Amino acid sequence: MPSGTAKCWGYNGSGRLGDGTTTDRVTPVDVVGISGATALTAGGSQTCALMPGGTAKCWGYNWNGELGDSTTTDRVTPVDVVGISGATALAAGHNHTCALMPSGTAKCWGYNYNGRLGDGTITRRLTPVDVVGISGATALTAGGSHTCALMPGGTAKCWGLNSAGQLGDSTTTDRLTPVDVVGISGATALATGRDHTCALMASGTAKCWGANSGRLGDGTYANRSTPVDVRGLSGATALTAGGSHTCALMPGGAAKCWGTNSSGELGDGTTSDRVTQVDVVGLSGATALTGPSLHTCALMPGGGAKCWGLNFSGQLGDGTTGTRSTPVDVVGLGGGTVPGDPGDPEPEPEPDPDCNKTYFVGVRGSGEGPQDKSLEQYEQAPGDPTYLTPRDGLGGPIGDVHTAFLSQVASDASNLDPVHLRTVAYPAIPVDTNPLNFPTYVPAYLRSVEVGASQLTRALNAIKGECADARVVLAGYSQGADVINAVMADAHTGGSMLEQVEKIVVIGDPSHRPNRAENVGNWWTLGSANGHGATSAIANNDTFAFKDAHPGLVSSICAIGDLVCDTSSAQVHLEAAGVGPHGMYSALTMACPVVKDSSGGPAWQYSTTCAAQILIEGLGYTPSTRQGGLHADQMIAQAGTHILASVVAAVGIGKRVTNLKALFTKKPTAPATRIADIADPIVAADSIEVGTFPVDKSGTAIIEFDVPNVPVGEYELNLVGDDGRVYRTPIYVTDQPTGSNLLMFVVEGSTPDVPPTTEPTDPGEEPGGSAGGSSDLFGS
């Protein structure tokens, strides 16, 4: 603003608007304590101002040090960046910030995974550090997880994340220090989006590279690791790159945009994605553009502004929260009008009073059908965001969650109207476990997740268009969980596509992290293994920041032994039994925390049934305490059902016990006849021996047998050790179909139901084991 003050509007999480609050603003408000500023830059969650003398002030989210004040404390008003003076420009990225310094050097600070700070490390920095090997730069731009500099002669250097080729060096290898962009010379400006980069050329043409989905403007959806021409563009005077779209300022102040358009961010009056440029409707006289995330804005003559695209948090500044697919005036800047005044281009529609729907949105896992199109075909033409026949796209575990959810709805658990099903159409590429293929598989996996996230965003926006008051529950399995994670990360940095979602459940989440609030249950009851998932090292921290900012919204179910969501559980050796638990959540049982058994404790449920019950509770209803209409406080099996169990973390058990004898026993009716009270439990009445199983040195045993042909009733599986330990698990045998011929569970070996009859002989060994003994095995 004149005199160097500043105004901000939109989402205000962590104080990024700088008005001293965290309240969203649908029209501009003053930033506290800013005057004399010469430039502004807004990142994923932080905002910064260039001040007189080349100093800088920043405000907003600061968990990774992106404010540069030597702390990780969020700031709702501006604070000084430590050690910056003489800076000529600032650039704020997703969760990092950079400054262009005299002589064309650069300094960066904040989050540094993938090397986006350019200092040769991946260490986050709370104060500015020098970018290695940069001098003579004339401009900087910071993207989602990468940074680029315009160099003499119009060449360019980039550094940071390169999974989609956004550094332009012909590889997809992350770079901790700057590398040359291939084939760029004569460029006059650079623009970075979330994971793509563009260069404005001297002729008014443009070149782009990185993740595509149409945002590169070359007429395809294919990612590019070197620059390609934006098709048909000429005469452009400026570029801006958003989350998944790009725009160019044209002669006369018109604009053209291309890329994803799920929220109308291209401004062409539609929500159709575009692989080549389209005109922004009704825009002329603009003098500058900015295209953050899922909306775009133009500076207008007289200091006014127009914006279009996603507007759930008021980021368009027109006084509403209605998404706009054509430009609207920002209120209070150069004559913007208040909604409802004469000249308002698009009054906010009244909500439909009859709209009262519930949607179940499912995202299937890796390799699950339909494998209708290749990844490349999805990138070139994604098509509808959801399957026309929704059940086809559910996959196995999410299909069982949906079935159990509908069963809950049909019961007395809720009075929901009929549930509308949507399933996300995306590649769900199969897992490749060959390490030799990882250099190609991992980028392909990330591309598949990106396509899925774009499709899920489009699906959620379509639901909002159908019914702005609809209630949505969201369930994802395996790769589908990572798709949801990506959308959560986007939502945290300004997107608002999850505003109608009331509960999210993820199963077998590859980005699972231990000791998180969203983790269901305890590792010994299967709900949440206490390890890191296969993709947690590359997971976006904004996903977890979103979860922290929305406590209770997300629940994560991760079975112990599932190496996808718990890589620390390799020692459990369930794979040795020939069946990995990752694909068996419909057969796995767990103590479900949202339903209670007859004694008031968590009821034993199938994992997918528990997931459905969690969704029901998330909608505000009381879930049923019955599993398939049967005894919820026990595991349910038919005669002939195959049992696969694992005994884990039995401290010292491998030093004394070489075998566990498994007895399938009729549940005693009186305590005096319980198996543990009989002198020789091996000959207890009503017991059927189903096998003897070895215990390895780590205290792990794999138990496998078929449920005997016994009458309907209550039974117990008793695992009896050489030293007299007994581990007891209740199983109800039924003659009704249970939907699975495999039942899986884990016995927590550090707490036997009956302690050992022999004393430990090894020094320092605790009798009966200890829960603390699991630390080496689980890293907890």
What's the overall average pLDDT, rounded? 83
Strand content: 25-35%
Distance between the termini: 52 Å
Shape: elongated
Task: Summarize the main sheet.
Answer: 5 strands, parallel
* Helix share bin: 10-25%
- Tell me the radius of gyration: 29 Å
Account of the 3D structure:
This protein is mainly beta. 12% of the residues lie in helices and 30% in strands. The chain has eight helices and 41 strands. The protein has a five-stranded parallel sheet, with helices on both faces. The chain has a five-stranded mixed sheet with strand order 34-40-39-36-37, with no helix packed on it. β15 and β16 form a beta hairpin. α2 (396-410) crosses α6 (607-618), α3 (438-466) crosses α4 and α4 (479-492) crosses α5. The two termini are 52 Å apart.
